[in-house]
Write a structure and sequence with these properties.
There is one protein chain. This protein is an alpha+beta fold. The chain has 26 helices and 20 strands.
Length: 672
């Protein structure tokens, strides 16, 4: 049975003391939440924000493939998001002759706007409560002896609703399947790049300033949506405000946050932070050091690896900060304290906790091995995906040569060889020898602990041996296969994740079910206590609200809620790539007191990047682009006073468009 989601019981139960925390389902903005937002300064009603019948602000909000967010800012399909969301697209367009990452991309008419293959933009149009329907479907499939796992259920439900409504359908489960919603989207695939500042302006401060405050980034990019070859006309676009904001002003963020684990048990958090994160951080730190060294040494390497390095550093700094903040804010201890009341609530709750503790203890060492497997054998060496593509069953020798010819230009042999040396050493010093395969044992017997010699031998006896020494086409043409006998392929491929999963299966086999039981039980426990609840982020549209506020990261330390162009001048350092913007920007940047970035206490996470930051009237005042390092426990818990959202001021965006991009046709279109 289908139900429109405007009922209190479906979405919320009552109010809670920490009301400003939360990534709230936009279709569940009930009267209690509306009143609390209005008490903070909101001048709109809930129905003006989300309204399936009459339309609302959310009609202007866009998901970029469910990895970033954006918003419409003109009646002719102009969409704004973060530069780091567009980073991969800009990198793909760049060549040594036209390096749009370094020089920026500025269309000066619609004819100059460049199509972006593969990018899809999603507009949420309707949300339906299908919880009862999903439960009935599971029961029916189970009675027939048919599979009824999550993927099967999603496939059936999405097909059903896509056919009925003629829109893209996505099934979203909340609270481990306590609720299920169908989200219906209009999708547009003709998307063209309009503007992207030089990376040294868009990401001024680079990864050194990432997760820090203050920042001074022009983190924005512009796209345009086309429909049938003409600019798309959205049903709603945002109004831009140039009036600014003051400390304490209301701020609202609407977007598509990716994932949180705020319903995780203390045992799960302890496993991730005390066991898995240190292993991940060790490997990622080494990868970053090697990649950064080569990128700084050669601009050609920087262009090839910039997109991968951006993702690596973002994740690496996130994980290191997450580990530090969970310790600093005693998140595990607080969750244990919560679980004391949860345990006392029912005997079943106590059983779930006892089993979770026992099973996490049993798999702890194996889970650490799985982290090493992923970080060492899967994610470290850029050549690995290329080797794996060569080994696909459908590829004959000609196809393998084509794959090689295509893949070799994407990597640098010097960097890859050094990374291989790092990987080989970490593999033999971190992985349990019980998982070693014949190729690994052969290498040990031949080289012992001389890992550099081992890596050099692997490279020189592989299909990549001549990479960087001969033309890529010549290297590819000389490959005779079969790839399955290649020593480098065997090193990475013979050990599979299934080997580790099988070992873990002997220890425990129902942890996933227990985790789901825990989440559902926590939901019922909080419901019984009358607490309002928002589900973990899962790439569905959410709203968070808060205020423009300063930060007090440590005792006795105060930082202002706004940064200005003075910081661009103070931080400029031509000897550091991350702090050296184009020379022309010295003469075009705003005056020293001009606003650049600002802070709010909105609750956000990955996926919110590019989300509009709106004032009390629903006008665009900026874009969310980062968090602060003190907020990095927020995957598991939002810490009041420390969870901040770093935003780029829309006035700074407009300045960059006008003076650096000189895009008069864009400014005219958005009436600036």
């Amino acid at each position: 049975m289908k139900k429109l989601l405007f009922t209190l019981l479906t979405c919320m139960a009552a109010w809670t003391a920490r009301a400003d925390e939360g990534m709230w389902l936009v279709q569940c903005l009930d009267r209690a939440l509306e009143k609390n937002m209005q008490a903070r300064g909101l001048e709109l009603g809930a129905r003006e924000i989300y309204n399936e019948e009459a339309g609302g602000l959310t009609d202007a909000i866009v998901s970029l493939g469910f990895y970033c967010s954006g918003s419409m800012i003109s009646e002719d399909g102009l969409m704004i998001t973060n530069h780091h969301c567009a980073y991969g697209d800009v990198a793909a367009l760049s060549t040594p002759e036209h390096n749009y990452l370094e020089d920026g991309f500025w269309a000066h008419s619609r004819a100059d706007e460049v199509p972006i293959p593969g990018l899809k933009l999603y507009f949420l149009r309707k949300v339906l409560d299908v919880s009862e329907e999903v439960d009935a479907l599971k029961a029916d499939l189970a009675a027939k002896g048919q599979p009824f796992g999550g993927r099967r259920i999603a496939s059936i439900m999405e097909t059903r609703y896509q056919k009925e409504y003629g829109m893209e359908a996505g099934l979203a489960g909340m609270w481990a399947g306590t609720k299920h919603y169908i989200c219906l989207y209009d999708v547009y695939a003709d998307v063209r790049l309009v503007a992207a500042p030089p990376v040294t302006v868009a990401a001024f401060g680079g990864d050194e300033d990432n997760w820090e405050w203050p920042q001074h980034k022009a983190d924005f990019a512009l796209y345009r949506i086309y429909k049938d070859g003409e600019p798309f006309h959205p049903s709603r676009h945002l109004t831009i405000s140039r009036k600014g904001y003051r400390e304490g002003d209301f701020a609202m963020v609407i977007g598509y946050p990716g994932s949180t684990d705020r319903y995780a048990s203390a045992a799960e958090i302890q496993q991730k932070i005390y066991v898995e994160r240190p292993a991940e951080n060790t490997i990622q730190r080494g990868r970053m050091e090697i990649t950064r060294k080569w990128m700084e040494a050669d601009p050609a390497i920087r262009m090839k690896y910039s997109n991968r390095f951006f993702s690596l550093t973002n994740a690496g700094e996130l994980y290191e900060g997450e580990e530090a903040c969970v310790h600093r804010f005693n998140v595990v201890e607080k969750r244990r304290s919560f679980e004391e009341g949860f345990r006392a609530f029912s005997a079943d709750n106590a059983r779930i906790l006892d089993q979770l503790d026992a099973e996490y203890a049993a798999i702890s060492a194996l889970e650490k091995q799985k982290v090493y497997f992923r970080e060492i054998l899967v994610r470290s060496v850029t050549a690995v995906p290329l080797l794996f593509r060569l080994g696909l069953p459908r590829n004959g020798l000609n196809e393998q040569r084509e794959q090689l010819a295509k893949g070799l230009p994407e990597m640098d042999a010097r960097l890859e060889r050094e990374m291989l040396g790092f990987v080989v050493e970490k593999f033999f010093t971190c992985m349990d020898p019980s998982f070693f395969k014949p190729i690994h044992k052969e290498l040990q017997e031949r080289f012992g602990e001389d890992y550099k010699a081992m890596a050099d031998w692997l490279w020189s006896h592989s299909c990549l041996a001549d990479a960087g020494l001969k033309p890529d086409a010549e290297v590819a043409a000389s490959f005779t296969g079969p790839i399955q006998e290649d020593v480098l392929y065997r090193f990475f491929r013979e050990l599979a994740i299934t080997d580790l999963n099988k070992a873990e299966k002997h220890v425990v086999d129902n942890l996933n079910a227990l985790q789901h039981d825990y989440v559902r039980a926590v939901y019922r426990y909080r419901e019984a206590k009358g607490e309002i609840q928002y589900p973990d982020a899962n790439s569905t549209m959410r709203l968070s609200y808060g205020r423009v506020l300063p930060l007090r990261p440590w005792d006795g330390v105060y930082v202002h809620w706004q940064s200005t162009a003075r910081g661009l001048r103070e931080k400029y350092d031509p000897s550091k790539y991350d702090f050296c913007y184009p020379t022309v920007w010295k003469y075009l940047m705003p005056p020293p007191d001009f606003p650049v970035n600002f802070l709010t206490d909105n609750d956000i996470t990955g996926g919110n990047s590019g989300s509009p930051v709106l004032n009390a009237r629903g006008e665009l005042i900026g874009l969310a682009f980062d968090g602060n390092k003190e907020s990095l426990a927020s995957r598991f818990e939002a810490v009041p006073g420390y969870n901040m959202c770093v935003c780029v001021d829309i006035r700074y965006v407009l300045w960059v468009i006008k003076y650096l991009g000189r895009q008069e046709y864009v400014l005219a279109e958005i009436k600036e």
